[in-house]
Design brief:
The protein has 474 residues and is mainly alpha-helical. 68% of the residues lie in helices and 3% in strands. The chain contains 18 helices and three strands. A three-stranded antiparallel β-sheet has the order 1-2-3.
Length: 474
Amino acid sequence: MGAPGGGTDDELTLLRARVAALEADAGRGAPRRERHRLRSFCSALLVVIGCVLVPLGLVAAWTADLLGDTDRYVKTVEPLASDPDVQDAVANRATDAVMRHLDLPALLEGVAPDQRPLVEKALGKLGGSLESAVGSFVHDRARDVVASPAFETIWTDANRAIHTSLDRALTGDEDGAVKIETDAVTIDLAPVIDRVKERLVASGLTAAGNIPEVHTDFTVLRSDDIGKAKTGFALLQAVGLWLPVIAVLCVAGGVLLAVRRRRALVAAALGFAVAAVVLGIALTVFRTVYLNALPASVSPAAAGSVYDTLVRFLRTSVRVCAVLGVLVALAAWLSGPSRPAALTRGLWRSGVTATRSTADRAGMRLGPVGPFVHRFHTWIVWILVAGAALAFVLWPHPTGWVVVGLALSLLLALAITDFLAAEGPGAAGPGPGGVGPDLAAGSERVEAEPEPEHARPRPGAGPGPDPKGARPKG
C-alpha cells in the first residue's frame, strides 16, 4: 500500500529510523559540547593564571637571586663605581661631610709657617671667598678619589661586605652597615672620606688631618613605603624560583587541557610574551614615579643610575621571556594547518630537496647515514628540540640573544637533519622542523574535526531515498 506523498512503507520506515538516529546523535552531542566548553574554560583559566604569575615570578626570581647570591649582587652593583652620576653624588656627599668638620677661620692659622705659602697658593688660584675656595678644593680632591681605581676597590669590597646587611635591611632585620633610616637604605661612605682626607693632606691642606672619623650615608634606595617594600621583598625571596615554576606549570596545564592544543599553545606563548612586556613597561613607569618622589637632597641622576643597575638583570629576564614566547608561538603556528604555514613548510621542503639533489649530482654519498636518519627522523628531531630546551634551562642567566642563538642553532640542526633524511630510496624528504612527508601533507586532516557519527553509514542501512525523490525500480 502506498503512503501519502507517493512513498512506500519501507521508505517511511527508513526515514523514521534516520530521524530517530539524528535525534539520538543530537542528544549525545549536547553533553559532549558541554564537556568541551568546560575543558576550554578550565584551559583558558589556567593559561590566564600562568600569564598573570609570569611578572611576579620574574620579580621573585630576581629578588632571590639578588639577595641570595653575594657574587651576583656584587656583579650587579659593580658598574656603579664607574658611573659618572654616582661618582658626582659620592663626591658631593664626601665634600659636604669634610666641610662640616673644617674650621675655616683657623685654617691658615693652624698651618705651619713653611707650609702656609703652599696652602695660600692652592687656595688663591680658586678665587672667591675662603669657604667657596676651600669647598672647591675639597671637591676636586674628592672627585679625584672617586675617579681612581681605589674607589672601585672600596666600592666592590664594601658592597661585598654589606650584602648580608642589605638582605637584612630589605627583609626586616636592621642590623649591619646597611640600615633603614627615614625610609631609606643607605651605605656608609667613611672609607671614601678617609681617602679624601689623605688627598687633602698630601695636597698641602694639613688641617684636614685633624678631622675626626666622619660617617655619612649614600642613599641606595629610598621610599616612603619602605615598610611595605620590606614585606614584599621578604615574601618574594621566600617564594624564590617556585613562583616561575608554578607559572610555567599553569600555562603547560592549560595547553594540555585545551581541546585544540596547538591554538592554545600559540595563545599561551603570546600571552607569556605580553605579560613579560607588561612587566618591562611597569619597570619604566615605576622608575619615573620613584625618581619624582625623591627628596631634593638625593641626586636624581645618581638614583636613576642605581635603579637602572639594580633592575638590569630583571630587564634582561623580561627580554628573554618575550623573545622565548614569540619563538614558541611562531613554531606552533608554523606546524599548524593554515595556508601560510603550509606554504612555508612547502618552501622548506623544496629547498631541502633542491639542495639534496644538487649534492647528489655533485657525487655526494652518505652511505648508511641517510637511511638511518630517515628512519629515525622523528626521534632525532625531538632529541634536538629537547637538547635546545635543556641548554636554555641550564644556561646561567641567559639573555635575549642567547635565546635567539639557540633558536638559530636548532633551526640549522633541523635543516641538516632534513638534508640527511632526504637520502634514501623513495624518500620524499621530511617536512620542515621534523614533520615527515605524510604528516606534512596530512596536516589539514590532523586538525580537522572528526566526522559526526550520524554522517557515517550504518550497518544494514540502505542508501536512503534518491535525492530527486524517484522511487526505486521494481
